[in-house]
Amino acid sequence: MNDAGNEIVQERKTVDALTASEEPNRRRLGEGGLNLKPSGRVPAPTSLEHRPGDRTVGQYTVDDAVFACRDVNVFYGSKHALRNVNIDVARKQVLAMIGPSGCGKSTFLRCLNRMNDTIPGARVTGSIKLDGNDIQDANQDVVQLRARVGMVFQKPNPFPKSIYDNVAYGPRIHGITRSRADLDDIVCTSLQRAGLWTR
Description:
Helices cover 34% and strands 18% of the residues. By secondary structure, it is α+β, with helices and mostly antiparallel strands. The chain starts with a helix and ends in a 6-residue tail after the last helix.
């Protein structure tokens, strides 16, 4: 074999040796391996799950918070999905939530406009206040809450309703139309512009 071929073989052996020596550390850090599930979701690594003695680093409170969340827990049936989340969202500031797939980012965001109410078996405990008002109060109008706190998810997340009702939801809650015929026109035009319906 020529010198170039020997260099390639030697380089490959070096890479393989490095990979083999790093493998135990990689498993310890990620603890999940490769994501081979077709759904694209993997369980959160045990390193991200609650451990006794874990504590928050830094401040989670701010002055003039838009949202103030205290001891927020989310359950899906008997599964405890979020544990004791405490965070304020500051007014006119950007908050980035970063974490692996399945760690609870979207679950927490759905709490902020009570989208978890639409999931059978979901239960949210703790306190979530929007401008000082408890959004979980029985008198809270969830339609008005969702009109004020909108969500855009990376995957479509329609309401468990018909296509018509999903498209008509926004114009309906904002009182944009005066009649059913006007609402029909908006739904028809919206579906046509999105390329989802032809007459």
